[in-house]
Design brief:
Blueprint lengths: L5 E7 L3 H26 L6 H9 L1 H6 L2 E8 L3 E4 L5 H27 L5 H9 L1 H6 L4
Antiparallel strand pairs: 1-2, 2-3
Length: 137
Amino acid sequence: MNYQPLVYEQSSRPGCLLQVLWFVFVGWWLGLLWVALAWLMCVSIIGLPFGIAMLNRVPQIIALRGRRLVQVIPGVGVRDVPQINPIIRVIYFLLIGIWLSALWMVVAYALCATIIGLPLGFLMFDAVPAIVSLKRT
């Protein structure tokens, strides 16, 4: 028999109330500083990998939200889902990711400024790694 790997999401999120309190008291300003520093690092060749890594951690900094996709392969075990070719990810980041992620995060911050938009804003922050660098999380 030929088995297909089963892909599922592992998330590590505290309760909703804790996420909202973190965002209100810490996440919004720490997230702004984190993103500004990340984009500043992206200006140089040496800082670029660190800047991208920081942008990929935005959901954890802003709202304590983390997740990853894993594959379950019968007879092998659990492993992370393979990433897209790094050269493609770098080209995407330089041409599209940096600008689209900036716009995406501005809209997410605007949504988080309202009670009604807060859940959608958090979901948008969860998508930042994929928008920045096509990272499969």
